[in-house]
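[audit] Reproducing an earlier prediction to check determinism. Same input, same settings, fresh worker. If the tokens differ from the archived copy the diff job will pick it up downstream; this log only records the rerun itself.
[audit] input (99 residues):
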Amino acid sequence: MSHTAIVEFPCNPGKGKELLDVLRSALVDTRAFEGCESIETYGDQEDPDRIVLWEKWATRANYDAYLAWRMETGLMDVLAPFMDTQALRIVNLDGHDDV
């Protein structure tokens, strides 16, 4: 079963567009990472400085390996000036197709 994750980036005021510019190039590597099925990028209509990623992965293990790799590559250090890193939120979802 696929794994779904939502990542919310709470950008500093006026920094949402800049974060999107960094993500635009970073997500090329993400989409090529083993197990990545898709990533969709959204901006909050009420708050353009809140960026949300909707991610689908083949397995939770693929996603965990990806997160570990991203920490090793220093991407969070690159993103940190654009956002409140303490408010970064990752939600790992379980599907309930039987409901």
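[audit] rerun output stored. Observation attached for the diff report: The chain has a mean pLDDT of 94.
[audit] end
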